[in-house]
Amino acid sequence: MAKRDFYEVLGTSKGASADELKKAYRKKAMEFHPDRNKDNPDAEAKFKEVNEAYDTLKDGDKKAAYDRFGHAAFEQGGMGGGRPGGGYGGQQGDFSSAFSDVFDDLFGDFMGGQRGGGARSRAVRGSDLRYNLRIDLEEAYTGIQKSLNVPTAVSCDKCSGTGAANGAEPQTCPTCSGMGKVRTQQGFFTTERTCPTCSGMGQIIKDPCTKCGGAGRIEKDRALSVNIPAGVETGTRIRLAGEGEAGMRGGPTGDLYIFIEVAPHALFEREGPHLHCTVPVSMVSAALGGDIEVPTIDGGRSRVKIPAGSQSGRQMRLRGKGMPALRGGSVGDMFIELSVETPVNLTAKQKELLRTFEEIDADNNPESSTFFRKVKSFWDGMKS
Q1: Domain for residue 247, yes or no?
Q2: Does residue 146 share a domain with residue 57?
Q3: What is the CATH number of the domain that holds 155?
Q4: Residue 361: pLDDT band with limits 50, 70, 90
Q5: Cα 186 from chain centroid?
Q6: Does residue 324 sit within a domain?
Q7: Quick one: which of 142, 154, 179, 228 has the fewest CB in 10 Å?
Q8: Could you tell me if 198 and 223 lie in one domain?
């Protein structure tokens, strides 16, 4: 049976670019993979056909020869000296090696490998660090400069982060040939695992640095000065680029993330940019009205007028006395909530005065009167 045109096999035109060929190949390879077509006896043959087509067209020289001479370019006497009778058309791989290419194309990036050969870079980026910082509400209001001691891994000064003693260069790992991973092939399946010799680094150090043991970094507390802006609240995250762990063997440094927690305050309760403050007032002050002084978060005082007849729970707003917004420059408000306090430990004279007041009470308690009218109506309804 005559071979089909390679472009037809991949479903592309003759003028397709390398990216278009690769995209078409990956689609066809997944479509006809034997593991996904166990009930289709023709899938394996089509899978081989797709790989043969792509192995030819992905190579610039072979593609040029195929475009000029077609399949004849790879038959006996033609370019490449292929096997008699066609077969894979001069390709040296078999079905398993074809699947290996599929594995590289589909999963190479996910596994952290590099396609197309070549040694894996020995430099590894350092880890990001998290630091939990607890501050007071007053510090969140004004902003503050904080000095921190952060335990981290820093570049080894003795070997300059290379991990090797006396300036020696690391050598390519003989087990994985610098790839950092070893591949095991069983039939159609190819599995990869981290190289046990170099632990995935791709290189080994014959003479490791005595100070860092070949890691290229050492554990150390580092002093940092951090600017905490005004308006931060619990959950605010501050990123310090390049202040995390040093990279392995000269790799780039990670970042440091500072997570802010604002401690509860004895007087104020925060709600976004606003503050709430509960202020106790005497029964007499609530009844007669008057002025009181309340604290503000900036350390000052504000005079608040209490209307006569105020009840517990009544709120009054002090505009602009809340927290600054982290972004935008606006300032929240402060809400004063009254808590009418019942007197305790009364003297005999005080008790007598209160009883006298109660006797001459002329419906001065509207909420109580309304409540008991509702109670009476409820009981009357139950009786009927």
Answers
A1: yes
A2: no
A3: 2.60.260.20
A4: low
A5: 37
A6: yes
A7: 142
A8: no
Q: Answer yes or no: do 197 and 140 share one domain.
A: no
The overall pTM is greater than 0.70: no
Binding residues for Zn(2+): 156, 159, 173, 176, 195, 198, 209, 212
pLDDT 10s digits, 82-96: 333 333 333 433 444
Structural domains of the chain, count: 5
> Directed axis angle between helix 18-32 and helix 43-57, to 10°?
170
Give the strand pairing for 203-204 and 171-172.
Answer: antiparallel
Alpha carbon separation from 369 to 285, 286, 312, 376, 379 (Å, rounded): 22, 19, 17, 11, 16
Contacts (Cβ under 8 Å, ≥6 apart) of 247: 123, 124, 125, 126, 155, 161, 216, 217, 253, 254
Classify residue 87: in a domain, yes or no: yes
Binding residues: 156, 159, 173, 176, 195, 198, 209, 212
Q: Are residues 89 and 183 in the same domain?
A: no
Q: Give the pLDDT confidence of 305-327 residue by residue, as tens digits.
A: 999 989 999 999 999 999 999 88
- Region 126-130: what's the mean pLDDT? 88
* Among candidate residues 22, 261, 52, 29, the one with its CA nearest the CA of residue 146: 261
183 and 219 within one domain: no
> Are 247 and 149 found together in one domain?
yes
CATH of the domain at 78: 1.10.287.110
Q: Are residues 194 and 145 in the same domain?
A: no
| 96 within a domain of the structure (yes/no) | yes
Mean pLDDT on 93-117: 44
